[in-house]
UniProtKB/TrEMBL annotation:
Keyword DNA-binding included in the entry's annotation: no
Family membership noted in the UniProt record: Belongs to the bacterial sugar transferase family.
Top-level taxonomic group: Bacteria
Residues that span the membrane, as ranges: 12-32, 52-71, 92-109, 115-131
Plastid keyword on record: no
Organism: Luteolibacter rhizosphaerae
Location relative to the cell: Membrane
Record protein name field: Sugar transferase
Length: 468
């Protein structure tokens, strides 16, 4: 469920509160450690105190709220059942326990009282569950108190208002008191002025898709003059994929319809990972580059080491993509003949062949091990590509797209690996299916999705799955 700014702010406040409660839980565990040890008698847990294992707090305090957010602990607080809340808490805390365990094992960090960890984790579970139920109870009391509800007018025809209310989640509408329905097309705006004053309205929602803009503008002006928030339902522009957001150019407010990932800290992290990751990969794979260069020079001395081709980058902007050459020097000139004699194993404008006769023996080995793709890390360093994204296609294949929606895969940076690359590569023979996978990636993009694709690519490359 998309999160509005008000809900996002509430979530951030809850996360700060929960971080403090996590610290309090571990402080309580340290405070009562002595009495618990005396009660347990022979239990030996050393003499470690919380101050001596502060590294645990550096992990659990800031990252527990993030783990809770990942498991959607902060979503739907008004309608969430106790079982759902408890389940989400347990999953998040088990994840944190795994993270601490990995730090101890792999980073070899010593110095942690098992008693403080155990009691602190249990107290964290109980305290956060109690906080969640208290907040749930508070929201229910707000819902029952008529005075506490937000007083709202919805402007539009009866059909438009009914359609809008049918799409609004009960989690949100349960805290509204709709004091009036106002048909902008049938009633003068002067009546809206009076209603705003008479009903002490806090917000007006304009669900007036079929009402002329002039009438909506007058209604917004009425709200503005009385300091009442005006919200306009953006469904007057029908979109299937694009997400509406608002921005400003100069002093002009703009409605933005965006079907690609919005500028965010996640995208900034993706850019950093691309730069740092490509540099480190070039450094650690440099012996493979040397082997590839020597092998190509020995087995196919008449051609260059690198193959460069114009590919379509973001929005179709051409760039030179680098690979280790795996085909005979005149491979491009032989393309038409190979298509005629051997056909195409990929349906659509893209050409793929399981055993391309233009590939020489050492080149086939480079392809099998995906070593031929390594020079694309230079394209990532230059900003033309990303580590993860739809595979870049030659310009002539992009020009042959039969459907305009196929071009939407060009709306993000192309990548070295993608769902297609990590999930089977040449097992997929339909270009439509390939595009569908790319568009699903774009529509559901997250930094975590990129990380999962990178981890799935590793066994696909090591085992040579789908490579030819």
């Amino acid at each position: 469920m998309p999160v509005g700014r008000k809900e996002a702010f509430s979530i951030q406040l809850l996360q700060l509160l929960d971080a403090g409660l996590v610290w309090f839980a571990f402080w309580m565990a340290s405070f009562f450690r002595g009495p618990i040890r005396e009660t347990l008698g022979a239990y030996n847990d050393g003499e470690m105190s919380l101050s001596q294992m502060s590294w645990v707090l550096y992990i659990v305090v800031p990252f527990t709220p993030l783990a809770l957010e990942f498991f959607q602990f902060y979503r739907r607080p008004r309608t969430k059942t106790p079982l759902q809340a408890f389940s989400q808490l347990v999953k998040a805390l088990l994840f944190m326990a795994l993270a601490i365990g990995m730090m101890v094992v792999f980073a070899q960090i010593s110095g942690a009282s098992r008693l403080i960890l155990g009691v602190g984790g249990a107290l964290t579970l109980l305290i956060l569950f109690a906080r969640d139920r208290a907040f749930h109870s508070y929201l229910h009391r707000q819902e029952l108190r008529d005075y506490a509800k937000e007083r709202i007018i919805i402007a539009g025809s009866d059909e438009e208002i009914d359609a809008f209310l049918g799409e609004v989640d009960e989690e949100v509408s349960g805290l509204w008191k709709i004091v009036a329905r106002f048909d902008l097309a049938q009633r003068p705006v002067d009546e809206l002025y009076a209603l705003l004053k008479e009903k002490s309205v806090e917000r007006v929602i304009f669900a007036a898709r079929d009402t002329e803009f002039g009438k909506v503008a007058e209604g917004v002006e009425a709200c503005e003059l009385q300091g009442v928030e005006a919200w306009i339902v953006a469904s007057f522009i029908r979109t299937q994929i694009a997400r509406p957001t608002f921005d400003v150019i100069g002093k002009k407010p703009m409605l933005v319809l965006r079907s690609t990932p919005e500028l965010s800290w996640e995208l900034a992290c993706k850019a950093v990972i691309d730069m740092v990751g490509s540099f480190l990969l070039i450094f650690f794979t440099s012996p493979l580059w040397l082997i590839a260069i020597i092998g190509i020079k020995i087995t196919s001395p008449s051609g260059p080491v690198f193959f460069r081709q114009r590919r379509a980058g973001r929005y179709g902007k051409p760039f030179r993509m680098w690979k280790f050459r795996t085909m005979v020097p005149d491979a491009e000139a032989q393309l038409a003949k190979v298509k005629e004699e051997h056909g195409n194993h990929m349906e659509g404008p893209v050409f793929k062949l399981d055993r391309d006769p233009r590939v020489f023996a050492f080149g086939a080995l480079l392809r099998k091990l995906s070593i031929d793709e390594l020079p694309q890390l230079l394209n990532v360093l230059r900003g033309h590509m990303s580590l993860v994204g739809p595979r870049p296609l030659p310009i002539y294949e992009v020009d042959a797209f039969e459907k305009s929606e196929h071009r939407r895969r060009l709306s993000v940076k192309p990548g070295i690996t993608c769902e297609w690359q990590a999930g089977g590569r040449n097992k997929i023979t339909s270009f439509e299916q390939w595009v569908e996978m790319d568009l699903r990636y774009i529509d559901n993009w997250s930094l975590w999705l990129d990380i999962k694709i990178l981890f799935r690519t590793i066994p696909a490359v090591l085992l040579g799955r789908g490579a030819n």
